[in-house]
Amino acid sequence: MNKDVTRVEGIHYATGRPVRFNIRGGIIQAVEPLDGVEPLDGIQAVEHAGEDTGGRGGDHDGLPLVAPGLVDLQVNGFMGTDLNGPGLTAEQVDTMSLALLRHGVTRFCPTLVTGPGERVLAALCALSEAAGGRGPASGAMAGIHMEGPFISPEVGPRGAHPLKHCRMPDISLLHRWMEASGGRIRIVTLAPELPGSIPFIRECVSLGIIAAIGHTGATGAEIRAAAEAGATLSTHLGNGSHSMLPRHPNYIWAQLAEDELHATMIADGFHLDDAVLKVFFRAKGEKAILVSDSMSHAGLPPGTYDSPIAGRVCLTPEGLLHMEGNPLMLAGSASALLDGVRKMASIVGFVQAWDAGSARPAGLLDPSGVHGLHPGAPADLVLLEPGPDKMKIRSVYRAGFKEVP
Ligand SMILES: [Zn+2]
Predict the structure, then answer these.
(1) Are 234 and 146 in a shared domain?
(2) Which candidate, 145, 80, 78, places its Cα nearest to that of 114?
(3) Domain count, the chain
(4) CA 98–ligand 1 middle distance (angstroms)
C-alpha cells in the first residue's frame, strides 16, 4: 500500500455509487467501486442518498456524498472582506479564501470592478502577492476577473458601477494589469458596443484571457461580432441590464442564441426569477454556469453598509442587497455560491446545479484539463452530509489535502 495515496470514500454525487477515490500528487488517480457496498442506481438515488432507500441504504449509512469542489468565477468579496475596498492586503485575500473554502469553494476568481485606476492596480498587486504566497489564497485563486471599467455608461447596463470611472477599452491598460498581477488576469468583462472592443477582445484571446460580455446594451450584431472575435462568456446574463427592454430583439435573446457563449447566472433568488433561471439553463445547456457575484456583505447580518462600489447599500433580512433608497437596484449578491447551487437544485435538480457551480466553470477556465470526479482531475472534493439537507458540508479537500474542518 502506497503511503503517498490518500483515500476518500463516499457516494458519488452523480452516479449514486459508493466509491473510493485514490488521490496522489493532488490529482484523482482512480475511482473504484467500494467492495461489499451495493451501488445505488442513477441520479434519483442520489437525491435520496442517506434517506430511506427502501432497505438498500444500510451498507452506505454514514458515507458522505462526494462532489467536485465549487469554482466561483465572480467573487467581489465575502464574509467582511471587500476586494474593491481601499488598502486591500494579501492577508485579507487569504482570510477570504479560507472563508470560501469553508463554503465549498475550492477555486475562485477574485473580481475587481470599475473603480479608480490606482486602487485597481494596488488591488492587483495584493491579489498577486496572495496568489504567490503560502496562505489559502495561493491554491485557491484561479485567476483574476476584471469586471469593468470597459462597460456601458448607461443607467441600467452600468448597474452599480460608478460612471466616472467607466472608460473605453484600452489594450495598454490591460497590459498594465497583467504586469501588476504577474500575468494573473483570466477574465475581462466588457461591453462589446464600445469603440475598440473588437481589437481588445482579440488581444484578450491572444493572451489566454476569457473575454466576457456584460454590463452591455449591445445590439445583436455587436454581440455576434464579439463572439466571432473570440468572446466566450456572458457575465451574469440578465443582470446589469435595462429594467425595460424591447421584447425582441434585445441583447438577452442575442446572447442566449449565441452558442459560442457560456453564460454565468446569479441564482440568489433576487437577481433572476426562477422561470428565467430555468429557461436560461435550458438554452445554454452545458454552458450554463452559476456564480455568486458575492460582496463583502455575504454572510453578514442585515443592516445598512457603506460600499466603495455602490455607496450606501442595504442588506435585508431575506438576503437582498440593494442600493439605499432603491430596492429595485441590486448592489451585488450577499449569497454564497453554495446558496445558488441549492436554489438551482430546486429548479433543475441537484446534479445539474452542482455541475454548473463546479466542473463547468473549471472547464471554462481550463478547457484542455480534466474536471469533476474523473481520474486526472484535481482532487478538489466537497464531502456533503447525506440526507435531506445534502448541502451541509462535512469536509473539503483541495488538491488532495483536507482543508476543512
Ligand atoms: Zn456586474
Answers:
(1) yes
(2) 145
(3) 2
(4) 24
Residues 6 or more apart in contact with residue 358 via CB below 8 angstroms: 67, 68, 69, 70, 71, 371, 372
Q: How many helices (H) and strands (E) does the chain have?
A: 12, 21
Q: How would you label 177-192 residue by residue, b for 16+ Cβ within 10 Å and e otherwise? A: bbebbeebbbbbbbbb
Contacts of 230 (CB under 8 A, 6+ apart): 201, 202, 204, 205, 211
Is there a catalytic annotation at residue 82? no
Tell me how far the alpha carbon of residue 7 lies from the centroid of ligand 1, in angstroms: 40
Closest-CA residue to 357 (of 261, 289, 262, 263): 289
- Residue 309's pLDDT is 65
Cell 429595485 locates to 328
Sequence-distant (≥ 6) Cβ neighbours of residue 345 within 8 angstroms: 352, 353, 354, 391
Mean pLDDT for 136-157 is: 96
> Which of the following is catalytic: 82, 293, 355, 380?
293
* pLDDT tens-digit readout, 24-61: 999 999 999 997 665 554 444 444 443 333 334 445 67
Q: How many CA atoms lie within 13 A of 285 on its CB side?
A: 6
Q: Are 266 and 240 in contact (CB under 8 A)?
A: no
Same domain, 198 and 346: yes
Of 305 and 222, more confident:
222
Task: For residues 201 and 330, state if they share a domain.
Answer: yes
Rounded to an integer, the average pLDDT of 335-348 is 95
Say what percent of the chain tops pLDDT 70. Answer: 92
Q: Containing domain of residue 330, as a range?
A: 70-356
Mean pLDDT for all residues in the chain: 92
Rounded to the nearest angstrom, the distance between the alpha carbon of 333 and the centre of ligand 1 is 10
Ligand 1 centre from 111 Cα, in Å?
10
Identify the pLDDT of residue 39. 54
C-alpha cell at 243: 429594467
> Are the CB atoms for 131 and 138 separated by under 8 Å?
yes
Q: How is residue 157 written as a grid cell?
A: 447596463
Mean pLDDT of 235-259: 97
Q: Is residue 284 part of a domain?
A: yes
CA of 89 to the centre of ligand 1 (A): 23
pLDDT of residue 160: 86
Cα–ligand 1 centroid distance for 311 (angstroms):
15
